[in-house]
Amino acid sequence: MLLADADALQREGWRRIVDAQPDLEVVAEVPDGVQALAVLRRVPVDVAVVDARMPRLGGVQVTATVATDARIRLTQHAPVTRVVLVTATDLDRFATSGREAGADRVLYKDAEPEVLLRAIRDAGALRRVPPA
After folding, report:
1. Alpha-carbon Rg of the chain, whole angstroms?
2. Model pTM above 0.85
3. How far, in Å, CA of 61 to CA of 63, rounded?
4. Whose CA is closest to 37, among 7, 85, 2, 10?
5. How high is the pLDDT of residue 60?
6. Pick from 60, 66, 55, 67: which is nearest to 30 by CA?
7. Are 81 and 50 within 8 A, CB to CB?
8. Alpha-carbon gap, residue 65 to 14, rounded angstroms
9. E strands, 43-93, where?
10. Omega of the bond leading into 79 within 30 degrees of 0 (cis)
11. Whether the predicted pLDDT of 130 surpasses 50
């Protein structure tokens, strides 16, 4: 999984939660959306946890690009990386724009660890569903 957030302490907290799970693995951490896309263009990632508000490129734009970028689609194969969009504020606004952009889940950054893990696992399960 990819963790994308400008706040290093936030990424560290998520990493600790994820690292405690035997079935999950963080493959990259980045502080902004441009770097998130760069990772996704070269490293296979099942799920990206992406902050809605990041420098250089926000999470909604990253989410939309994941679904349409040809280089990401070639690296990730089908189906493409799933996105869990997180925000510290304006959940309603980001829930709408995030889902329109293709996010599988949208939640607050301070969600309980169980909620974050459920969102990650649910999104990962969507990636593994064979096409109909």
Report:
1. 13
2. yes
3. 5
4. 2
5. 93
6. 55
7. no
8. 23
9. 47-51, 82-87
10. yes
11. no
